[in-house]
Amino acid sequence: MRDVDDRRPLEATRRTARRKTAAGTGGSELGALLKDWRALRGKSQLHLALEAEVSPRHLAFIESGRTTPSQEMVLRLADALLLGLRERNVLLVAAGHAPQFGEGTWDSEELKELRQAAAMMLEAHEPYPALVLDAASTVLDANTGALEMMGERREALGRINLMDLVFSPGRVRSAIGNWHEVAGFLLHRLRENARLRGPRSEVARVLERVLAFPEARQLPALPGGAGAVLVPLTFTVGGVTTRWFTTITTFGAPLHALAEEITIEQFHPR
């Protein structure tokens, strides 16, 4: 395993917030972030103030940069805005506070136990496919069944993206018999995740990339079918067709940004 400086993601968060503060005009970077998140969540300043149990006047002062909120106040506002841990760190840094949640990479030492737990789940699910994904659908780990389904080597893990495989012309897309159904659901899921993570997130960048692929913009908002319970996956390789449904597992009570974002997707035969 390569050496990883686990502090780099947090330092990058600090630098980004400082650059944006320096470049901002009128009000604070924190205020701009809060306004952006309020707009994304459809909340007025009064609505957010009530949910965060702060006076509208005090919130107005925070957004205008006339007052600097405490760490506890920033976290209350983030909670009312339903922000993820990574996004909470950005707000904290913009307010001049230290990040409170880890942002180490998947191969960092601090996530060793999570990698071990995920590896056990992947191995136990053989010979059926199972994947470990981050919020942007990067494939961080996969068992043999999943690597064979994707047509990828283990060395590619961490550099391949599930959305790219499904939407771009290639082996995976051509193997999906009900591509419009599957792609429509995945696009819906990606859009919802982008709304959750915000327009500055890696998820939003993946969404933008996906929408540039042929046919993506013509997909229905959310596929449906009378009497359907789950969206199935029909996959054909070498003349052999299989049908699958999937389950998704997350880690409970995360205090680390990546730990909160990780999903383990397991394929079950139908």
Percent in helix: 40-55%
Widest β-sheet, arrangement of strands:
2-1-5-4-3
Order of helices and strands: HHHHHHHEEHHHHHEEHE
Terminal CA distance reads 37 Å
The portion of residues forming beta strands comes to: 5-15%
Largest sheet, described in full?
Answer: 5 strands, antiparallel
Question: Which residue ranges are poorly predicted, with pLDDT under 50 across at least 5 consecutive positions?
Answer: 1-5, 18-26
Structural class, please? alpha+beta
Number of helices: 13
Outline the secondary-structure elements.
Layout: H1 8-23, H2 29-41, H3 45-52, H4 56-64, H5 71-80, H6 85-94, H7 112-124, E1 130-133, E2 139-142, H8 144-150, H9 162-167, H10 171-175, H11 179-197, H12 202-210, E3 233-237, E4 240-249, H13 257-261, E5 263-269
Antiparallel strand pairs: 1-2, 1-5, 3-4, 4-5
Helix pairs in contact: 1-6, 3-4, 3-5, 5-6, 11-12
Structural account:
With 270 residues, this protein is α+β, with helices and mostly antiparallel strands. 48% of the residues lie in helices and 11% in strands. The chain contains 13 helices and 5 strands. The chain has a 5-stranded antiparallel β-sheet with strand order 2-1-5-4-3, sandwiched between helices. A hairpin with a 5-residue loop joins strand 1 (130-133) and strand 2. The two termini are 37 Å apart. 32% of the residues are buried.
List keywords for this structure.
alpha+beta, disordered N terminus, 5-stranded antiparallel sheet, 48% helix, single chain
